[in-house]
Amino acid sequence: MIPLMPTTSPPVFRPALAADVPAIVALVESAYRGDSGRLGWTTESDLLDGRRTNVDGVAELLLQADSIVLLAERDGELLACCHVERQGEAGYFGMFAVNPLLQNGGIGKALLAEAERHAREHWQCLAMRMTVIEQRAELIAWYERRGYQRTGEFRPFPYGDERFGIPRRDDLRFEWLVKTLAGGTA
What we know:
The chain has a seven-stranded mixed sheet with strand order 1-3-4-5-6-9-7, with helices on both faces. It has helices at about 20-30, 35, 55-65, 105-125, 135-145, and strands at about 10-15, 50, 65-75, 75-85, 90-100, 125-135, 150-155, 165, 175-180. By secondary structure, it is of the alpha+beta class. The chain has five helices and nine strands, in the order βααβαβββαβαβββ.
């Protein structure tokens, strides 16, 4: 990973292009897996081994209708990314990654707000939904501070499907979180 130049300029947001896919995959892997993920606080390294995503999976997201991969950049450098797709009257938020060296600096919060704005203004979504591994208490608390609520609804972890990682424990499951977007009801 290349060290980042200190700067105070705000990030710029834009939709990802096909040429961005390798950098997105590298960013996501660095934030969630291995030793680089341990530099930030959002790592899943204690819960999962294996890959978090791959080039084909990210490229597919760029081709889906009602789907966008948003990037946060500063001076042309990729800082963070997320995937948002319309699912009925709600947006679904996922594949959220911030460079581990920049976590806790406000970039993730700004990108999440941009994703919510996009879902609300472009798709007239009334809510944003996501799934988070239940054991990620610090991450769930971070989302709760941004207005997301735990629903008590769970989805099983897809054991045996290495596209989601190789579990290091047998009690993983996803919890649904939801946030009402301005002017809507969840």
